[in-house]
Every structure is written in C-alpha cells, then in structure tokens.
Amino acid sequence: MILLTDEQREQLLINGRDRDADHIPVVKFFNPLGQGVWLATELDEDGDTLFGLADLGEPELGSFNLSEMIAVRLPLGLGIERDILFEGLYPLSVWAEAARRTGSIREAERVLHAIHTTRSDSPAKA
C-alpha cells in the first residue's frame, strides 16, 4: 500500500512550513496486527520526517520517519497501513488531549467520532 497520496504529501509539506499552527491530522497510519497508530500533521522538507501524534502504548506528540514505517515487515506479508477512511476533523491538540484522557488514539477516535456524529445529527437552532 502507498502510505501517502500525492495530495496528502503536499498538504503535509504545506503544514510543515507553518510549525506554529495546530493542524488537523492529514493521515492516519496503523499496524493491522496490533499496537501502533500514528496521526501525521506535518512533513519536513526532507520528505521523510513526519510530525504528529504517535501511540505505541502511550500517546505522545513527536516526530517519526516515513521510511521506518515503510520498512516494517509484519507476519503474513503485511506492513504498516494508511487508514483510507480517516478524517481528521479536529486539530492535533484535541486529538492529543482525547488520547491522553482515554489512553489511546483508537479510543480517542471513537470518542471524537461520537461527538462529531452527535453534533452533525443535532438540528440547527433557529
């Protein structure tokens, strides 16, 4: 699987030029066989260093390398994958706080999705 589309790569590079902003995650990567979820908001000009929220047992903000994720070889010939249905919806600070409170990015995603769905289903007030 291609881990980044051209559009995602371009948006990550654009975000990487504005480090002070609280960007919405552009892409979510995950280990299909276990622990490991990454939300990327920025890509350095080197084309390899991503910044975002990583969860390998405990969610934390930081940098990670695209090349290392591509190199991961899991059983059954699998590797790290990109969630093609992922929608960031909220700035990284919201994701980080939700992940800290719930203990993981996966749990934070459930909570944030439920909040978003509830807000989307609410009738507009007149």
Write the layout of secondary structure elements.
Elements: H1 6-16, E1 27-30, E2 37-43, E3 49-55, E4 59-65, H2 66-71, E5 81-82, H3 92-102, H4 105-121
Antiparallel strand pairs: 1-2, 1-5, 2-3, 3-4
Name the features.
21% strand; globular; 4 helices; 36% helix; alpha+beta; 126 residues; five-stranded antiparallel beta sheet
Largest sheet properties: 5 strands, antiparallel
Mean pLDDT: 94
- Low-pLDDT segments: none
The total strand number stands at: 5
State the shape: globular
Into how many domains do the coordinates divide? Answer: 1
Separate helix tally: 4
Strand order of the largest sheet: 4-3-2-1-5
Cα gyration radius (Å): 15 Å
Share of helix, binned: 25-40%
Strand % is 15-25%
Distance between the termini: 47 Å
The helix/strand order is HEEEEHEHH
**Estimated structural class:** alpha+beta
In a nutshell, what does this entry contain?
The chain has 126 residues and is of the alpha+beta class. The protein is built from 4 helices and 5 strands; from the N terminus they run αββββαβαα.
